[in-house]
């Protein structure tokens, strides 16, 4: 299926953003969400010309907004010559169709916009497959005339990828394509699982966080690599793992992952399950937070919710506030320290706080190691070679035809030694 551009070169779609404020939502949270939607729209190549909100006691199933507000949105679109309305939430196919009929221009929702941006940034075969699957699953219930605006708007925001050709594709072919993509992702998942098993003897720290929090910049700083860094949403869609030496024989793996965002499309999370599994199988999560953000707690909560959804909610994590070079607010720092004990404050740009963070990661490695006494018959030569490879040996001696080693190794290496015929005891560190 051909992938198009979000917009024609040299042209920006004029966009009106629309949102509801429902009971239980604060005005600040609605404003922050709309500001983020505006930034997403600009990332997709659009120009936001107006924003409109309505406070309602409950969500209206049919047209979403009240009739008076709908008239206001229509007039606003005419006045600003807008070509697209983006709703800050999720619309059912029938709601989208009704809004388009009333307003008489194209309407998409937040999930469609996020999917579009993902499609723009997908580079690898895995990322492209994951995004296309999510798009097709989003598109499938919107067939049968729900996307008629595509006939009069070419290569517009919300139509990248399968969207722009859906009028030529029937439901049966889309379902067939979905099945093929799922089969491809299963193979990719198997390959990733083999890679993970090959790294099981290493400590794995995984960077997670809200999109554009600076995870890739921090990844580069810690690992010494040059992963893509861009001041935009979802610059990273593929997980990247690198080996980091922490002194002596101590080393760990560091993994960078796709960023999270509020109201992340469910089918997108499902499609990226193999990528996100890197987080759920980590030894510890490094939760990177943008210290310059106005809604820090809400973004932390959003990330925590996604982590729970992918089965990583119970993993040990370290909160790292990044971009402290952009903020000079000691009260805010004290407040975050009280809320999130053990957190770190760093700047991947200026290196401030990086040394302390590296020390904490090294200490975390130590927590995952065990001081051991290993007793091994001398004729178990293969096991001796294994010990030399995976164990940091402090001392060794021969006693009663047995080798006796004292040292440290990763706790989950112990079963490997026991299977090789060694007797392993956790040593008293004071002895």
Structural overview:
The protein is α/β, with parallel strands linked by helices. It contains 14 helices and 14 strands. It has helices at residues 27-43, 67-80, 93-103, 110-121, 125-139, 171-198, 215-223, 266-271, 273-280, 296-309, 330-339, 354-368, 381-390, 414-419, and strands spanning 14-21, 47-55, 84-87, 106-109, 203-209, 240-245, 251-256, 284-290, 317-322, 344-345, 369-377, 392-399, 402-410, 423-426. Strands 6-7-5-8-9-10 form a 6-stranded mixed beta sheet, with helices on both faces. α1 runs parallel beside α4 and α5 runs antiparallel to α6 (171-198). The radius of gyration is 26 Å and the shape is elongated.
> Based on the structure, what is the oligomeric state of the protein chains?
single chain
Number of strands: 14
What's the domain count? 3
**Major sheet: arrangement of strands:** 6-7-5-8-9-10
Largest sheet: 6 strands, mixed
CATH topology of the largest domain: Rossmann fold
Order of helices and strands: EHEHEHEHHHEHEEHHEHEHEHEHEEHE
Query: CATH homologous superfamily name of the largest domain?
Result: GTPase HflX, N-terminal domain
In short:
The protein has helices at residues 27-43, 67-80, 93-103, 110-121, 125-139, 171-198, 215-223, 266-271, 273-280, 296-309, 330-339, 354-368, 381-390, 414-419; strands at residues 14-21, 47-55, 84-87, 106-109, 203-209, 240-245, 251-256, 284-290, 317-322, 344-345, 369-377, 392-399, 402-410, 423-426.
